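Dear Dr. H.,

I hope your travels went smoothly. While you were away I took the liberty of generating a structure for the chain from your last submission, since the lab meeting agenda had it listed for discussion. I wanted you to have the full record in hand beforehand rather than looking at slides cold. The sequence, exactly as received, is reproduced here:
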Amino acid sequence: MIIISCPIKQDFVIETVEGIEKYQYKFEGKSGINLKFSVNAEDMEDAATTAKAAIKATEVGAVLYFQVKAE
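The corresponding predicted structure, in token form, is as follows:
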């Protein structure tokens, strides 16, 4: 499971992360500003890094404040 903390543009973040092809991310729900995703990956740190890079690669994500952590 990875957690993405993002106070705004949450729908954009969900759509972006679920569109990643390297791993299969599935939005499980949110708690406040935390978005929870299950991932079919052995290496959760790599899954978190991949999600962060995918968000940052977008025009909106480049200026968006967010954090990604693996659990």
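Two observations you may find useful: The chain has a mean pLDDT of 96. Strands lie at 2-5, 25-31, 34-39, 67-70.

With kind regards,
E. W.
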